[in-house]
Write a structure and sequence with these properties.
With 242 residues, this protein is α+β, with helices and mostly antiparallel strands. 13% of the residues lie in helices and 33% in strands. The chain has a domain of 127 residues: Sandwich (Jelly Rolls). Strands 1, 2, 3, 4, 5, 6, 7, 8 and 9 form a nine-stranded antiparallel sheet that branches.
């Protein structure tokens, strides 16, 4: 296809050149001819031969910089770090100087009384106590330091320790009573026999902290009575101070 194009272009050039030749042969002075058509781009040439190896380059060393730069400004304060592990306990310090004498203690007799706590009270009325209510024992037999309150029917602990509480009830009907400490029931005591006057009793050892209160409280059955010949009694005393 490329060969045919060259043939056509050659024919056209021959047609254009022949008149010009005729004119030039006929006339003394001619006119410039028409520029020819640009030829096609030629093909790339072959690779040249490999050149010789050049000389090695020279390594130039620059001057050394300063060994240490100037000290910079302090940075901003960082956040506190986590607490590290505790160190080993240090050695015992030197004993301090002896303190001055303390205040005189209480008289031995007075201190002994302060560690005592006991009461024994009686109920001498023939009327039954109120249902589901505290029982008041109004007749005082023993009441050290007035720890038992005959108005409220409650014993208030002044000396912390272990106490023993006991009751003896004269009853004419079914009877159920609770021993309470600060509104917490400690133990119920009940007797369901009827139709005969009798006595029932119960007791319990209880630990009390300072200012805790203990009392007896009725439930549905409240057949406790008292007469001149037979009281109902409530007692308590300190077994061991803590």
């Amino acid at each position: 296809m490329l060969h045919r194009c060259f043939i056509v272009i050659g024919a056209l050039l021959s047609l254009a050149v022949s008149p010009l030749v005729a004119l030039e042969s006929c006339q003394a002075t001619g006119y410039p001819g028409i520029p020819g058509i640009p030829g096609l781009p030629g093909r790339d040439g072959r690779d040249g031969e490999r050149g010789q190896k050049g000389d090695p380059g020279q390594l130039l060393h620059g001057t050394a910089g300063p060994k240490k730069g100037a000290k910079g400004e302090p940075g901003p304060l960082g956040y506190p770090g986590k607490r590290g592990q505790s160190g080993e306990p240090g050695e015992a310090g030197v004993p301090g100087t002896q303190g001055g004498p303390g205040e005189p203690g209480e008289d031995g007799k007075t201190a002994g009384v302060q560690q005592q706590a006991a009461f024994s009270v009686a109920r001498g009325t023939s009327e039954f106590p109120d249902r589901t209510s505290f029982i008041r024992f109004t007749k005082i037999i023993t009441n050290i330091n007035d720890d038992y309150n005959s108005v409220t029917g409650r014993f208030k602990c002044r000396v912390p320790g272990t106490y023993y509480f006991v009751y003896h009830a004269s009853i004419e009907d079914r009877f159920c009573v609770l021993l309470k400490r600060d509104n917490t029931p400690l133990a119920p005591f009940c007797d369901h026999r009827r139709g005969k006057r009798q006595v029932t009793s119960g007791g319990l050892a209880v630990y009390l902290s300072k200012d805790q209160e203990v009392w007896m409280e009725t439930q549905t059955y409240r057949g406790m009575t008292g007469k001149t010949t037979g009281y109902s009694i409530f007692s308590g005393f300190l077994l061991h101070a803590h």
